[in-house]
Specification:
256 residues, alpha+beta, Aminopeptidase, 3-stranded antiparallel sheet, 10 strands, 29% helix
Length: 256
């Protein structure tokens, strides 16, 4: 029988392009029993490996992977820097006997028009076309007609999606759902999809949407907020960990 903690650690390593190597020693008390290590895809040692095999503990590998995930997402917190405009050079005057005209200072360049501050609001039926584009970036096959139909259903349930708008354009989407379960004393909130347009990433819009989703769940008396995320989206997993979310379960799915 496999060890769930080892399986979870191996999956975490795979999400970062690494491989978890387990000790072959199966006798408790012997040297290297329960030891693990990390290698890259080519088999090169990354952590806790020597010529005889693994030497690290589970805690050491877990700490290494957690810190590695936080570093992967650190770039999302960078502030964009606007490029400086070059000052125009004055035109060169032709040589002649006339008195040179006094030099005129070039007017200062106009500062670039600042972008409007992103805002979060409820989705509207008129957003359906743009929402379809954003959803398809996550490889979900859906058409605009189906999105409009789902928006109407969610509005009737009082669970309209949240969208981030910048310069009157929708640049992010977050769908949050409230559910009552038999095994919990309070309702549970769940983020079922979170996506930010590529051109608007690394500007804190994902954080804005998650903060708004958390407040919505508090208003709905939810005690916890869950997130579902595809196994292949390693950067998204690092983002959620950075936001304070912890992995607590494995999600299974079957098409009907």
């Amino acid at each position: 029988m496999s060890d769930p903690s080892l399986d979870a650690l191996a999956e975490s390593a795979r999400n970062r392009g690494l491989k978890l190597v387990r000790s072959r020693v199966r006798t408790p008390g012997k040297r290297r029993f329960g030891k693990v290590g990390l290698t890259d895809a080519s088999g090169k040692a990354v952590l806790g490996m020597d010529e005889k095999g693994p030497t690290a503990t589970l805690e050491q590998v877990e700490d290494y992977l957690r810190n590695l995930g936080a570093k992967d997402w650190g770039a999302s917190l960078d502030v964009a820097v606007m490029p400086r405009k070059k000052k125009p050079k004055p035109a060169r005057q032709a040589a002649n006997d006339a008195e040179p005209e006094p030099k005129r200072e070039a007017p200062p360049p106009r500062p670039p028009k600042p972008k409007s501050k992103p805002k979060v609001r409820d989705a509207k039926p008129s957003d359906a076309e743009r929402l379809t584009e954003l959803i398809r970036t996550l490889e979900h096959e859906i058409d605009e007609k189906a999105v409009r139909k789902n928006l109407a259903r969610l509005k009737k349930a009082g669970e309209l999606p949240l969208v981030a708008v910048e310069d009157k354009k929708v640049v992010g989407l977050c769908v949050v759902h409230r559910m009552v379960t038999l095994h919990r004393p309070a309702p549970v909130g769940r983020i079922t999809i979170l996506v930010v347009a590529e051109e608007a990433q690394k500007r804190g819009i994902g954080r804005m949407l998650v903060d708004a989703a958390e407040q919505w769940c508090r208003d709905q008396d939810c005690a916890i907020l869950e997130v579902t995320s595809n196994d292949r989206l390693g950067r998204a997993h690092a983002f959620y960990r950075h936001m304070g979310y912890e992995r607590t379960s494995i999600r299974f799915c079957k098409k009907l």
